[in-house]
Amino acid sequence: MKLFTILLSAAGAAVAVTTTLPKSAGSTAVPTAIPVSGSFDGGMKKYDRNPSVCQGQTETGEKDAMFILENGATLSNVIIGKGQAEGVHCKGTCTLNNVWWEDVCEDAATFKQSSGTSYINGGGAFKAEDKIFQFNGRGTVRIKDFYANDYGKVIRSCGNCSGNGGPRNVVIENSVAVNGGVLCGINTNYGDTCKISNTCQDDGKSCDRYTGNSSGKEPTKIGSGPDGTYCTVSGLTKNC
């Protein structure tokens, strides 16, 4: 299979971002989420839920995920099908290596860690009506060499969770996002930050800044774009 790539300049080196969904090496469909403790390498097989639990933008919770990762777990080389609803749920910090979503449904991954850093290395996601990644916990999520196509936001700090707060820190580097909205949605009143470098978003959309709450009300959007404090950008291009 020929892989189409976009080359971005990062620290003087060429970094390849794969922009096509890899061909699966087989498929499996299961009725419940798969728990992962330690490491799980899917060998580029497609994993799906049968029967389908996708209900569009209706939030259904962890039980409708494809994978549930325990603290410190690593998930690698999987394609997640469109029959799941919640993608991957990380109970603590986690690492996602070359994980692909052919159709996000509600969320591709939800991060619940109380502290520490989670990593998204490579991979990509398609058809996310709202956000791709939901950041409900605290600490940091680092996204590198990732591809997003047809989405609302690449990642959003929860705007109105019960017990909401921060800070939540997002780092996006050497990634490509097309046919969608901003890269980050953050709550500045909780001290959230988003740092973007050497990344392409075809409309130049970097951050939306909000005042988050814990009441469940729709959070107030207070601005867009880099502000030098909460949203910082270097090497952002529109030429994807």
TrEMBL record:
Cofactor: Ca(2+)
Leader sequence segment: 1-16
Subcellular location: Secreted
Protein origin, superkingdom: Eukaryota
Keywords: Calcium, Lyase, Secreted, Signal
A Gene Ontology term for the protein's cellular component: extracellular region
Matches recorded under Pfam families: Pectate_lyase
Example of a GO biological process term: pectin catabolic process
EC number: 4.2.2.2
Enzyme class: lyase
SUPFAM superfamilies: Pectin lyase-like
Entry annotated with the keyword Signal: yes
Catalytic activity: Eliminative cleavage of (1->4)-alpha-D-galacturonan to give oligosaccharides with 4-deoxy-alpha-D-galact-4-enuronosyl groups at their non-reducing ends
Entry GO MF terms: pectate lyase activity
Record bears the keyword Phosphoprotein: no
Predominant localisation class: secreted
Protein family per UniProt: Belongs to the polysaccharide lyase 3 family.
Function in brief: Pectinolytic enzyme consist of four classes of enzymes: pectin lyase, polygalacturonase, pectin methylesterase and rhamnogalacturonase. Among pectinolytic enzymes, pectin lyase is the most important in depolymerization of pectin, since it cleaves internal glycosidic bonds of highly methylated pectins. Favors pectate, the anion, over pectin, the methyl ester.
PANTHER family referenced in this protein's UniProt entry, alphabetically: PECTATE LYASE F-RELATED
Full protein name: Pectate lyase
Annotated organism of origin: Emericellopsis atlantica
